């Protein structure tokens, strides 16, 4: 497909690998974190680690929205799905994420709950219009990429005066998560030399959104496209910045990302959503101002207000290492359940569910190497 | 989840709907998040929404830059 296949050219990838080889200082290590699960997926799918010099280490970050959602929020969604007259809709991956005691939305469905997988939040709006006697709840998750569609849906629900549509909002923010990763906490954190920065999140928030974190921690961030050549090109840019001891933002993904982001999307988010005081992330714990909640003006569409539930603290699978994997201090192979008890068909932790999860990506493409 | 891809807009319907071509398959998407979309534009599609236009000139520039950079490597 146009603007995809050109960025997968093997010849150019090899040329870039050569350039990176020439650029690296053999006397040092380069620890680069790809923040986004989309990059984790691309890196494994195209076998990029095998093209890179040994002293470049790619560390998976927490940028997989399915992976970072804490178990209590999954339990909440499952409890919502079991309420009478409820149709619970969400994006596909969410149905398979295990909650406490390995119970999932798919299992809830098997027990009779009306749980539906939708491609777009617009489909959930349509289901609400078609089923006026049912309560349709959309389980909204994701970083800044899936947030603008949620904002549009809130505006539409208000304009259409829908009485039976609400959103269980779990949108989280990227720059603050980078900040938390880099801050020295009591938990072990990896020593990172730079970030392969988010592609599609940056379309919305703009490359300037990482300026504070890059400057405060003096790290280079290269906003990178999702195709293999984009990732290789970005790694080369990062190596050069690290060699020159430069920090700050560079943008490799100029065909889609501007410095200021999408004014239209940001305006809609501002209108409908606001910062939460605090939100729990799997692996990173509670982080102040790291997520969004529905504004007061849209209370009628806020599932947490319409269906307040007391959810006990979530129970992770005891041996699951997702938390440490999401912080970049462990690898999927370090988990003794990996590829034995835990597989994409039977995920025991969230990192094995979505194709962007580190465990799922390693399982699908990375085990041989 | 975050996977998104460039697709070509092939028809505009009642705003904010548009039809795009995804590798030969037609799909209806929302263009509520991006202004001034024309037939023939490429947009980055994510969970049923166009997130932004793809800047075709910038795409060509990046490809030209990559080709230029590796010129001396592949001979
Ligand atoms: S392999 Fe499964 S159980 Fe182990 S860390 Fe990954 S998701 Fe968790």
> What's the number of structural domains of chain B?
1
Query: What is the number of helical segments of chain B per DSSP (H or I, 4+ residues)?
Result: 1
User: Which stretches of chain A are poorly predicted, pLDDT < 50 over at least 5 residues?
Assistant: none
Helix percent band of chain B: 10-25%
Q: Which sequence of SSEs, written as H and E, runs from N to C of chain A?
A: HEHEHHEHEHEHEHEHHEHEHEEEEHHH
On the 0 to 100 scale, the average pLDDT of chain B is: 91
Give the largest chain-chain interface (CB within 8 Å). Answer: A-B, 56 and 38 residues
Q: What kind of assembly state do the chains in view correspond to?
A: heterodimer
Count of DSSP-assigned helices of chain A: 15
| Ligand types | iron/sulfur cluster
> Between the first and last Cα atoms of chain B, what is the distance in angstroms?
40 Å
CATH architecture of chain B: Roll
Strand arrangement, major sheet of chain A? 2-1-7-8-9
Total domain units of chain A = 1
Characterise the protein shown here.
The complex is a heterodimer of chains A (369) and B (75). With 369 residues, chain A is an alpha/beta fold. Helix content of chain A is 36%, strand content 18%. Chain A has helices spanning 10-23, 37-45, 65-68, 71-81, 105-110, 121-130, 147-159, 174-182, 200-205, 211-216, 228-243, 263-272, 303-306, 322-326, 358-366; strands at residues 30-36, 56-63, 86-90, 114-117, 135-142, 165-171, 194-197, 220-223, 248-251, 273-275, 278-281, 285-288, 292-294. In chain A, the strands form four sheets. In chain A, strands 2-1-7-8-9 form a five-stranded parallel sheet, sandwiched between helices. Chain A is globular. The mean pLDDT of chain A is 93. Chain B has a single domain (5-74), classed as SH3 type barrels, CATH 2.30.30.140. Chain B is built from one helix and five strands. Chain B has one helix spanning 56-70; strands at 5-12, 17-22, 25-30, 42-46, 49-53. A five-stranded antiparallel sheet of chain B has the order 3-2-1-4-5, with no helix packed on it. The N and C termini of chain B lie far apart (40 Å). Chains A and B meet through helix 1, helix 2, helix 6, helix 7 and helix 9 of A and strand 1, strand 4, strand 5 and helix 1 of B. Iron/sulfur cluster binds at residues 317, 320-322, 325, 332, 335, 337-338, 342, 348-349, 351-352, 359 of chain A.
């Amino acid at each position: 497909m146009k603007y995809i296949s050109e960025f997968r050219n093997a010849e150019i990838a090899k040329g870039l690998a050569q350039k990176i080889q020439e650029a690296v200082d053999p006397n040092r290590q380069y620890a680069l974190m790809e923040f986004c699960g989309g990059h984790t997926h691309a890196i494994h799918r195209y076998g990029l680690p095998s093209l890179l010099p040994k002293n470049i280490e790619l560390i998976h970050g927490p940028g997989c929205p399915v992976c970072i959602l804490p178990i209590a929020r999954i339990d909440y969604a499952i409890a919502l799905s079991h309420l009478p007259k409820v149709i619970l809709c969400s994006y596909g991956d969410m149905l398979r994420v295990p909650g406490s005691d390995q119970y999932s939305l798919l299992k809830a469905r098997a027990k009779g709950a009306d749980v539906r997988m939708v491609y777009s939040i617009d489909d959930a709006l349509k289901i609400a219009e078609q089923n006026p006697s049912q309560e349709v709840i959309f389980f909204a998750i994701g970083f800044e990429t899936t947030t603008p569609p949620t904002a549009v849906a809130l505006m539409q629900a208000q304009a259409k005066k829908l009485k039976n549509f609400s959103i269980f909002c779990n949108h989280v923010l990227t720059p603050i998560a980078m900040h938390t990763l880099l801050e020295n906490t009591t938990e072990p954190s990896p020593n990172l030399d730079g970030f392969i920065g988010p592609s599609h999140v940056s379309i919305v928030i703009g490359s300037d959104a990482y300026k504070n974190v890059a400057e405060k921690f003096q790290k280079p961030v290269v906003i990178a496209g999702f195709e293999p050549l984009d990732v290789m090109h970005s790694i080369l840019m990062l190596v050069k910045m690290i060699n020159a001891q430069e920090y700050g933002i560079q943008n490799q993904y100029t065909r889609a990302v501007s410095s200021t982001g999408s004014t239209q999307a940001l305006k809609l988010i501002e209108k409908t959503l606001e910062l939460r005081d605090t939100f729990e992330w799997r692996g990173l714990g509670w982080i102040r101002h790291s997520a969004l909640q529905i504004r007061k003006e849209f209370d009628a569409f806020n599932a947490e207000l319409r269906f307040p539930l007391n959810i006990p603290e979530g129970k992770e699978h005891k041996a699951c290492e997702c938390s440490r994997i999401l912080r970049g201090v462990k690898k999927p192979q370090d988990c003794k359940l990996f590829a034995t008890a835990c597989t994409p068909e039977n995920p025991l932790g969230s990192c094995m569910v979505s194709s962007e999860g580190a465990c799922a990506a390693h399982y699908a493409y990375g085990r041989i190497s | 989840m975050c996977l998104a891809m460039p697709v070509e807009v092939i028809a505009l319907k009642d705003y904010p709907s548009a039809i795009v071509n995804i590798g030969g398959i037609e799909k209806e998407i929302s263009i509520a998040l991006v202004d001034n979309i024309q037939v023939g534009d490429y947009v980055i599609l994510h969970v049923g929404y166009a997130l932004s236009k793809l800047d075709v000139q910038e795409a060509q520039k990046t490809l030209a830059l990559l080709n230029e950079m590796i010129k001396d490597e592949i001979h």
